[in-house]
Amino acid sequence: MKIAVIGTGYVGLVTGTCLAETGNDVFCVDIDVDKVNRMRNGEVPIYEPHLDVIFDRNIKAGRLRFTTELSEGLDHADIVFLALPTPEDEDGSADLSYVLRVAEDIGKQLKSYKIIVDKSTVPVGTAELVEKTIAAQTEVPFAVVSNPEFLREGFAVDDFMKPERIVVGATDETAIKEMKRLYAPFVRSGNPIIVMDEKSAELTKYAANSFLATKITFMNEVANYCELVGADVDKVRAGMGSDSRIGNRFLFPGIGYGGSCFPKDVKALHKAGKDSGYNFEILDAVINVNDAQKVSMVPKIKRYFKDQVAGKHFAFWGLAFKPETDDIREAPSLYMIEALLELGATITAYDPEAMPNVKAKVGDRINFAGSMYEATENADALVINTEWSIFRTPNLETLKNNLNQAVIFDGRNLYDVNEMALEGFHYISVGRKEIS
Ligand code: NAD
Fold first, then answer.
1. Has 28 been annotated as catalytic?
2. Helices (DSSP H) in 242-371: which residue ranges?
3. CATH architecture of the domain with range 2-196
4. Facing residues of 150 across strands?
5. 337: number of CA atoms within 13 Å, CB side?
6. Span 65-94, mean pLDDT?
7. Using CA positions, which residue lies closest to atom 17 of ligand 1?
8. Are 151 and 160 in contact (CB under 8 A)?
9. How far is the CA of 6 from the centre of ligand 1 (A)?
10. pLDDT the model gives residue 238
11. 18, 28, 226, 261: which is the annotated catalytic residue?
12. Residue 97 belongs to what H/E stretch?
């Protein structure tokens, strides 16, 4: 099938590449000239495991091409995916300007029937808005489909190739048939393509993300309470998670959720509810608790250093909002950086993939190390923000030798508390006893 994907970020590029992998002829469109040039030269502009191999294969096979011209993608395609940003607006709502601007341009340039598929995460009613925006510019027939994306950064290729479900929000029968045909290779093992109306599809995505953010946040509150009463959140988690009604995923406590999706999606659903006269009280709490959780290590650090944080030097392990990505949008590490700099501390950070992005954001206000151990040299404490695999079994002797004091503030609960005690560390984590 002939496909265009407008916007080649984490979602668009994975969508385009994976659709090419199943034999479709794909044009990816982006306004970022530099990005398009890099992709034309065979460079994957983001870090996403396994993407490089299929990216390369499909470019060589001529099934994956890149352009900065919307018209080139549009003229080529029968199905046009919108994978455009929907960032948080000042009032917490989703900023639809990218989506609607492209919809208007599509309307102006449409020459024949196309299926326009919204893959961006958007509030209820956006498909209708996109339809009106295009229709205001053209008499040419078209259909609009809402097809929210559920991939996870770090597992995006796997998630796209083997989705647990595909949600198609559409009423146009041709569009539904074509979407089923396009996705058939991805659901051969029997996972469902769930067809529903556009509004329900749009809400499904927000509801799913908000539920997951709520689950994480609930567990963070349980962890905070564990610290007060001397319970161990690891035990509580194991006890809770083995109940199949609860499940053991998304129950790991830590320093809060971040990323390009949960923070803005929770806020957007909350705001959309308000605009419709509904107050999502639970989401209000989730937003507030998570804001506090992102810097919940700061009071622990202050307490340990008896409020003398100025002049202390910290090693940071992990900057990305989660492992296996270079995405730092809303990463708790950024909040930790600001909080510690504000207190007069200095920081040397190491992250396997996210350092260039953080450097572009914070410049030389912090230092960057060439390795995880180099970051710890002469630091007064180690702070862990992201649970990358390479941090899981460090050489504790090297760590002790490098650090001025054997102190770890672990925002991701990577290590066994008792083992850290035996190794002689002062170890402070989340929802577990403090080892000194
Ligand atoms: P992104 O910021 O990584 O990528 C967006 C891309 O769109 C950029 O390359 C940008 O240059 C391009 N762009 C902007 N305006 C354009 C225009 N007029 N024409 C062509 N290209 C244009 O965003 P993302 O993370 O891929 O997210 C896209 C959407 O998918 C968002 O709505 C997001 O909420 C949703 N989503 C994201 C994820 C995720 O894990 N990142 C998962 C599911 C859904």
1. no
2. 262-275, 281-294, 297-304, 332-342, 355-362
3. 3-Layer(aba) Sandwich (3.40)
4. none
5. 25
6. 97
7. 31
8. yes
9. 9
10. 97
11. 261
12. helix 97-109
